[in-house]
Write a structure and sequence with these properties.
34% of the residues lie in helices and 19% in strands. It is an alpha+beta fold and 522 residues long. The strands form 9 sheets. It has a 6-stranded mixed β-sheet with strand order 12-11-15-16-18-17. β21 and β22 form a beta hairpin.
């Protein structure tokens, strides 16, 4: 039991408190309870030093006093008040008291000074950013940003053609019965379409009934995102930045292609079309079949790019004032979506097809304009295309990143330089291969490299990620696994032993500031 508690303390899931002079610091404990409630829950252990695990066991009378005090703090010093489960465990020379705090349903919680706290690893931090507060409220369902109002925007600021397309898809069967299909639908005005759907209704009344217009007459964020003519006039960050770099560094100053902000301005359908055009003109086409004139297909399956793009546009955080960012490098494609995974979702959950949309109203309506099924199968369908993809859920940076590696069948990674090179010799025009395609094993010409362990794609990603020194948590977050000792052994210690990574503080392997960096081979 104690070993589990110490592991949880190191992972930031448990905070330890010493019992000093029979009096606990009520305010500090309240802050811990607030932080756990605003995060994903956790445990507070009284009678143990935080981080060191040194035990200062409580007597029977101290246990009673502590139990009563914790209950009082949870109800009086946490706003709104919370319920906690309190248990005791026997240890040498006394007992420990354990208070279990669940993730709160009424975020954001604050202390009696009005300060909002969240967990930050094993510590906690204050929250001042309104966007982060809004994200907490969205996460627990007390605020729906897609249903918020857009000040001063009117129906005249919406695109009639996009609304018509939406209504045609949503009310397809109704319009079929009225004979409004094919050319008849195309030639009909928006008002005719609205009247056919509901007699006597114009566009504004239809949009009110569909909740795109709020009772106070303002347009919702969802209406502006789906139908806006110039969406970014009201929401400048609800856009996407698309850059194709020459090389593999985001710090590169040479661009092969870059979508101008003005070209991206518009609603989600326009943004989707612009992003897909960006992909198709910058990614390679690969010949399919043996025939010289056989059809080619995109090096990264188009279906996967569709799913990842729609995911970034529909499931992004609407509270974060940041655009979707899409980068094409020589060796990979990165899609950065603002906001970490919502509602406690994990990477394993989304791979398994679990669907818990962040923007429910937008999600339920965008399906009539954008190509997705709405049943949570998008990521699994993309993965069915047998692509080399990694996911990173970054709680600290508040973004979700999808990385798709390009051309694994015709590119190999040069770990000496951290760059990928093509299997085409540009000087001679002749093709060569560093991979034995019959066995799937990589080989090199040097004795040194043949002794080295062959890396998986995930391990290669870790090594390149550590071109800049990284902490254990940063590395494991990168590949989407928990801070478990087995994961540290599998993904970090093994790469150190194999000579691909090295510690920044090798003399003290367990140092709290220990980081790992890539070994530059000669």
């Amino acid at each position: 039991m104690m070993d589990d508690i110490l592991k949880q303390i190191n992972a930031g899931e448990v905070s330890g408190v010493q019992f000093k002079e029979r009096i606990l610091d009520k305010y500090d404990i309240a802050c811990e309870l607030v932080a756990f409630s605003n995060s994903h829950g956790g445990k507070l252990v009284v009678g143990i030093k935080d981080k060191t695990g040194e035990i200062n066991a409580l007597s029977y009378s101290e246990v009673q006093e502590t139990t009563n005090l914790l209950s009082d703090i949870a109800s009086e010093n946490v706003v709104p008040s919370i319920l906690i489960k309190i248990d005791t465990i026997e240890v040498e020379d006394g007992n420990l008291v354990i208070a279990t705090v669940k993730e709160g349903l009424n975020k954001p919680y604050h202390d009696n000074k009005g300060i909002v706290w969240v967990k930050n690893g094993a510590d906690k931090r204050k929250v001042f950013d309104n966007a982060e507060l809004a994200e907490m409220m969205t996460d627990c369902g007390s605020f729906a940003p897609d249903e918020a109002g857009v000040r001063d925007a009117t129906v005249n600021d919406l695109d009639a053609t996009t609304i018509k397309q939406f209504l045609g898809n949503r009310f397809e069967r109704v319009l079929e019965k009225k004979g409004l299909t094919g050319d008849a639908f195309n030639e009909a005005s928006l008002d005719m379409i609205c009247s056919a759907i509901a007699k006597g209704h114009d566009c504004e009344k239809i949009l009110r009934n569909l909740r795109f217009i709020r009772p106070d007459g303002t347009l919702t964020v969802a209406a502006m995102l789906l139908f806006g003519k110039y969406t970014q006039r009201w929401m400048p960050m609800m856009t996407a930045k698309c850059i194709c770099f020459a090389g593999n560094s985001i710090g590169g100053k040479v661009f092969r292609d870059k979508v101008n902000d003005a070209d991206m301005e518009g609603n989600l359908l326009h943004q989707y079309d612009t992003i897909m055009d960006f992909f198709t003109r910058n990614l390679h086409n690969v010949q399919v079949g043996d025939e010289f004139n056989s059809m080619g297909k995109l090096e990264i399956p188009y279906t996967s790019l569709v799913e990842f793009t729609v995911n970034s546009l529909v499931h992004r955080s609407l509270n974060m004032k940041a655009p979707v960012r899409i980068f094409i490098f020589d060796n990979r494609v990165e899609i950065h979506s603002p906001g970490a995974l919502p509602n406690g979702l994990t990477i394993d959950d989304i791979k398994a097809g679990t669907s818990m949309p962040r923007n429910m109203f937008l999600f339920n309506n965008a399906i009539y304009l954008l190509p997705y099924t709405g049943v949570g199968s998008g990521i699994t369908r993309a993965l069915d295309e047998n692509i080399n993809v990694t996911f990173m859920n970054n709680d600290k940076a508040q973004e979700f990143v999808i990385t798709v590696w390009r051309g694994e069948s015709n590119q190999v990674e040069d770990l000496d330089t951290g760059l990928r090179h093509s299997d085409t010799n540009l000087d001679t025009g002749l093709r060569h291969s560093d991979t034995n395609l019959d066995t799937g094993l990589r080989h090199t010409d040097t004795d040194l490299d043949t002794k080295r362990v062959t890396l998986t794609n995930k391990e290669k990603d870790i090594v390149n990620f550590c071109s800049v020194p990284r902490t254990t948590k940063e590395i494991l977050d990168r590949i989407g696994v928990s801070m478990h000792s087995k994961n540290r052994e599998r993904y970090i210690t093994s790469l150190v032993a194999a000579g691909y990574l090295q510690m920044t503080n090798p003399d003290n392997p367990t140092a709290s500031n220990q980081k790992y960096k890539k070994v530059n081979l000669r």
